[in-house]
Target: Peptidase
Amino acid sequence: MMAAPVFPDKVDGGASVLLKRRAVLVAAAMLMSCGPALSQDSSALKKNMIGQWELSTTERSRTCVVTLKGETVPQGLKLDLEPGCAASLPFTKDIAAWTVAGLDIVRLQTATGEPVIDFTEVESGILEGRRENDGIYILQNLAEARSLARSMDQMIGDWAFVRSNGQPICGITLTNTEVPPDSFQAFLKPKCDPAIAGFKPKVWRLDHGEILLMSAGGETWHFQADDNAQWRLVPDSTNPLILIRQ
Model:
């Protein structure tokens, strides 16, 4: 076992996502005691959701553009799916309408009103939903999602691990070769620091503004961008581990 400043606690990406969602639902339950507030919040959410959204897997390896509209249809509100959605995300073939359920659930549903997937907001402009025995999906403002795609492209290539003295202690290459579900291959370069070589990250992805590096054993390192355009391992330490672009 390596020292704590080098290895963060194990963090399961799915568990973290579910905890965020649970927190949102708890907050919603606290607000539901006020009937008028529920109505006002639902109306505001419906208004805010009108527009173009990207429905995708967590790392955008499969995407679909959904246009939510304000017109009423027999089972909710009107929406349009771009051609090719069913090929990219097969479950979307069942989606015929959308609505807001309860306080803060954006529901994509069938022509008979059955839910296909429910979304709740986890960050401003980002909603998250889970399909049982399928996985987690993201609904994000289309313009912001495309901005994220450009950010993703900027991650591809060679990086170096450095300590606070700026001395490289290992190199890593982040690729765009997909490793299902929703991750990409990463390759360490020779002559790495033992702490990093022992962790041996195999895959990577971007998740809610973090670079995640994951080992074959299921451990995850989280790197967050700092004010110097570098990515620092969190939780931070007095001798931080930093990722910099080569």
Remarks:
- Confidence is low (pLDDT under 50) at residues 1-40.
- The chain has two domains: 42-145, 156-245.
